[in-house]
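#onboarding

Welcome to the new folks! Below is a worked example of what a typical request in this channel looks like: someone posts a single protein sequence, and someone else replies with the predicted structure as tokens. Don't worry about understanding the tokens yet, we'll cover that in week two.

Example request:
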Amino acid sequence: MNQEERLIRILNYLESHKTMNIKQMCETFNISRDTARRDIVKLSTNKAVVRTYGGVSLASFHKKIDNYQMRSQTEFEMKKLIGKKAANMIADDELIYLDVSTTVNFIAQSIQPKPVTIVTNSIDTAYMLAQTEDTKIQLLGGTLNKSSRHLTGYSTIEKLKDYHFNKVFIGAAGITENGLYYAFEEDIHFKRELIKHTDQVILLSDHSKYNRRQNYRALTFESIDTFITNEVPPQDLNNVLDKYGVEVLIASKD
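Example response:
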């Protein structure tokens, strides 16, 4: 089989499966890894296909991350509903962590005045919480990422070790049956350290993140206790959530 024939078959495979990695190419076409890499380079000239770590995917599957301000305006009403439902899960006197996700930020906008301590590294979340009564706010230190408007770095991760949270609320840049994906490598280390220091991990995401992948997979659903979203996940994702006993809560206007 020549390269042109392989590329057509790879494109057909992507239409159904969204992604294909080097190992799959080698096994499917009985080719070497070097040949598979050359095919990937050739495929990446097609605007419908993007090169990923270890393979290729459809561009629609590997969605580019917009900046914080743009993301905060997308799926606005859905995020607001999800944030409100999540805020209702916070009880008096709890120690809570709120992620830098734009969806999680809606918790800060919805939370009712109550005696809780909230830890965050999001400057927008901290500012929003400063408007509420009774809430104690602790801001993790670090270097300010101006684009995503949060504090990050070694000192931010190290500070997590001083806490044990009742609940942590996190977002994700992409969700597939393989787990939660993020755009930056630092998210891997931060999220994996974070879940070591809590009783409950609660994921917030709207339906637009379903079957989306980003550069780095940080967590599997084994780490998640509750998933709050606005639409029932597709069947393949639902099967994995059920397998790991993840509670799925649907936020609606009713």
